[in-house]
Design a protein that fits this description.
alpha+beta, two-stranded antiparallel sheet, 50% helix, DinB/YfiT-like, Maleyloyr_isom, MDMPI_C-term_domain, Maleylpyruvate isomerase family mycothiol-dependent enzyme, metal ion binding
């Protein structure tokens, strides 16, 4: 067995095979989300990806580098397929080399992704699209048939223990981000109307839940900070984080003024949160009010995705 095989067995298979599986009861509350809100958004991303991939040539698929280190467009598609196959219960495949030594692989998650990607390296663009359609069709049926009890069952997710519904919102976020990666790479950028669709809203909802951690832990906002992130453009919204012993996303500051205001395009905000560079198709301007030093530090540390 190769070194890769040992890595894939432990800890990758042990940890990742638990994703989406029920866990023992816990006092930790889970996020309760409506299936009728999450599933149409998730399925909408898959529909948009299907339409997008149908326009991409074999050459674009194989040779176009994305903003994700080491990944061409085909690798992004294979990653989406592989994750859904894993959630179906299929084991992580072995690879033909020690992918842990690749420059862009830094952790067990990266090893798992490369195993899936290399397992599909020989597929043509038509075969890859067919595989994408097959696995997403299967997942649609499974998720649609799921009872509310199953939907709200505590499970392991990439964000720790939470409901299966939260996991599917994370899948919406991840799939939507990768749709944007592909669009940026092949110059088929999303329209303003597309960025107002439910899938974009849910992706931003998922990002918003992490802003307490990002602002205080990664951005180092001191105790007493009131940080207001004003997103502009088609993904406009305002996110407020209060740091008072611990950081939390809040609906308002109780009449107090923010100590720091960050103002930027909403789509560009999602790029930075996902560890991507700013895109060229929307405004790259970032404005600060109040404690600009704190604001700049937060923006420099927005990337929280593994």
């Amino acid at each position: 067995m190769t070194k890769l095989g040992r890595i894939a067995d432990f800890p990758v298979r042990r940890v990742l095979s638990s994703y989406g599986q029920p866990v023992s009861s816990s006092t930790r509350p889970v996020t309760v989300l409506e299936k009728s809100d999450v599933l149409p958004a998730l399925f909408g991303v898959w529909d948009d990806l299907d339409t997008l991939l149908s326009t991409i040539s074999e050459a674009e698929l194989l040779t176009t580098q994305t903003e994700l280190p080491g990944w061409h467009v085909r690798d992004v598609v294979a990653h989406i397929i592989g994750t859904e196959l894993m959630l179906k219960g299929e084991p992580v495949p072995e690879a033909d080399m020690d992918v842990s030594e690749l420059d862009h692989v830094h952790n067990p998650i990266g090893v798992m992704n490369e195993c899936w990607n290399r397992s599909m390296a020989g597929l043509s663009s038509a075969e890859l699209l067919e595989k994408f359609r097959a696995v997403t069709d299967d997942r649609r049926a499974t998720l649609t048939a799921m009872s509310d009890e199953e939907w709200n069952t505590p499970t392991m997710t990439p964000a720790g223990q939470d409901s299966l519904g939260r996991f599917m919102r994370i899948r919406t976020f991840d799939s939507w981000m990768h749709e944007q990666d592909i669009r940026e790479s092949v110059a088929r950028v999303a329209s303003d109307a597309a960025l107002q669709k439910p899938e974009a809203r849910l992706a931003l909802d998922e990002i918003e839940t992490m802003m307490g951690f990002v602002v205080a832990k990664r951005g180092g906002a001191p105790d007493g900070s009131r940080v207001e992130i004003q997103l502009t453009g088609p993904m406009a919204r305002t996110i407020r984080v209060a740091v008072d012993g611990r950081a939390a996303v809040v609906p308002d500051f109780g009449g107090a003024e923010p100590t720091t205001v960050i103002r930027m395009d909403g789509w560009q905000f999602t790029r930075l949160c996902g560890g991507r560079p700013l895109g060229a198709v929307r405004s790259v301007a970032i404005e600060y009010e109040g404690d600009a030093e704190v604001g700049q530090r937060i923006v420099e540390n927005l990337g929280y995705v593994i």
